[in-house]
């Protein structure tokens, strides 16, 4: 007959083995990120550091940008919600960014502005009086833009979560997400990583992920 004490020891040993396996996998992920092209420095964030970044980004989201609306940084928010979040200082001219469009303008669930990468489509949209370009390839569809002041308060520029290309080949990583912080978040992350360079091509990002059991 197996004693309850023996069962308890087996369970504790099993948990220990699982923790050891997770730690080993985490170290492998950190090594993968550290060795990526364009990465200057990385740091696995603590809960307190995650909260500090979220607090800064939340304040930024309350400000009007482009003279039009507030913002919502879903990429950063989702990266901070993962079990593990890595802050990175990167050389933007070398780092491999995810390819998906990184921002849209929405009013609740309606897309009213977006990045357009097809040059022919950009050319066609420029001919339309209903297209307003915030910059070269970001168009706002003015027919969809709300006229009612109460509706306008719901408009947001949304920075989208994307999958980091650097972790696509790591089989035990799940729910990985890439986020780009605001200017204020960028300053804070560089301070956390003790990077003091004034090089304008040096940026920051967050990579959040979970590890499969």
Shape category: elongated
Unreliable stretches:
none
Q: What does the oligomeric state look like here?
A: single chain
Order of helices and strands: HEHEHEEEHEEHEEHE
CATH class of one domain: Alpha Beta
Distance between the termini: 31 Å
Going by CATH, the architecture of one domain would be 3-Layer(aba) Sandwich
Q: How much of the polypeptide forms β-strand, as a percent range?
A: 25-35%
What fold name goes in the CATH topology slot of one domain? NADH Oxidase
Mean pLDDT: 91
Overall radius of gyration:
21 Å
Q: How many β-strand stretches?
A: 10
List its salient traits.
28% strand, 10 strands, alpha+beta, 6-stranded mixed beta sheet, 213 residues, 4-stranded antiparallel beta sheet, elongated, NADH Oxidase
Describe this structure in words.
By secondary structure, the chain is α+β, with helices and mostly antiparallel strands. It has a domain at 4-100 and 160-211: NADH Oxidase (3-Layer(aba) Sandwich). The protein is built from 6 helices and 10 strands; from the N terminus they run H-E-H-E-H-E-E-E-H-E-E-H-E-E-H-E. It has helices at 4-34, 47-61, 74-81, 119-126, 149-152, 183-192; strands at residues 39-44, 70-73, 84-91, 103-107, 110-115, 131-135, 138-141, 155-159, 173-179, 202-211. The strands form 2 sheets. A 6-stranded mixed sheet has the order 2-8-4-5-7-6. Helix 2 runs antiparallel to helix 6 (183-192). The longest helix is centred in the N-terminal third of the chain and has 31 residues, at 4-34. The radius of gyration is 21 Å and the shape is elongated. The mean pLDDT is 91.
């Amino acid at each position: 007959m197996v004693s309850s004490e023996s069962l308890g020891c087996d369970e504790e040993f099993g948990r220990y083995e699982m923790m050891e396996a997770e730690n080993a996998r985490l170290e492998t992920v950190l090594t993968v990120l550290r060795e990526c092209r364009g990465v200057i420095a990385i740091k696995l964030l603590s809960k307190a550091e995650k909260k500090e970044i979220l607090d800064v980004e939340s304040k930024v989201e309350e400000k009007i940008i482009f003279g039009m609306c507030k913002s919502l940084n879903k990429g950063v928010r989702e990266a901070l919600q993962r079990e593990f979040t890595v802050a990175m200082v990167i050389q933007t001219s070398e780092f491999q960014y995810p390819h998906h469009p990184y921002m849209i303008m929405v009013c609740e669930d309606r897309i009213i502005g977006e990045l357009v990468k097809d040059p022919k489509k950009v050319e066609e949209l420029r001919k339309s009086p209903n297209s307003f370009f915030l910059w070269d390839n970001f168009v706002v569809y003015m027919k969809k833009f709300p006229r009612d002041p109460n509706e306008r308060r719901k408009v947001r520029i949304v920075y989208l979560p994307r999958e980091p290309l650097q972790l696509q080949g790591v089989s035990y990583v799940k729910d990985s997400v890439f986020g780009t912080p605001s200017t204020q978040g960028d300053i804070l992350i560089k301070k956390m990583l003790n990077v003091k360079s004034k090089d304008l091509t040096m940026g920051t990002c967050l990579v959040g992920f979970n590890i499969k059991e």
